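ok so i was messing around last nite and threw this chain in just to see what happens. nothing serious, just curious
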Amino acid sequence: MITIRKAELSDIPFIRKVAGETWYVTYAGIMSQEQSDYMFEMMYSADSLTQQISGGHTFFLAFEDENMLGYVSVERESENLFHLHKIYVNPSAHGKGIGRLLIEKAFEFAKTEASGNPCSIELNVNRDNKARYFYEKMGMAIDRQRDFPIGNGFFMYDYIMKKEL
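result:
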């Protein structure tokens, strides 16, 4: 049985573990090893995750029994706009519906935080990431595309996808 709960600071080691098991598989062939290493450290160091959780990112963790299999992170950006920052599911758990449960949890969270008022949720996805098709199945659509400098001469080449909730 899959359960989802809100993360706490004490969950950072679990988030880092699942991130390590999914990150490199996801981005192999999309970006260089050097960029992948740089981005992983930038986004998943213990200090970075602490800042994210303390600074308004809400993480939800998916478990099967005691095993954490995935997570989603969402942040309120304005009164009626939310941003889904991260959604990763361990490759060994693909096909179990965990990604769907996590993204639905992010949608539910945004609607609740918006107190039932109309709102939207956005996410960035690398233009070469096959996950884009999953997001489309979940009702998201490409709204625009941007190239973001992230430091060390690296860029993220993303679609920004959006869904009205």
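not much to say yet. The longest strand covers residues 67-78.
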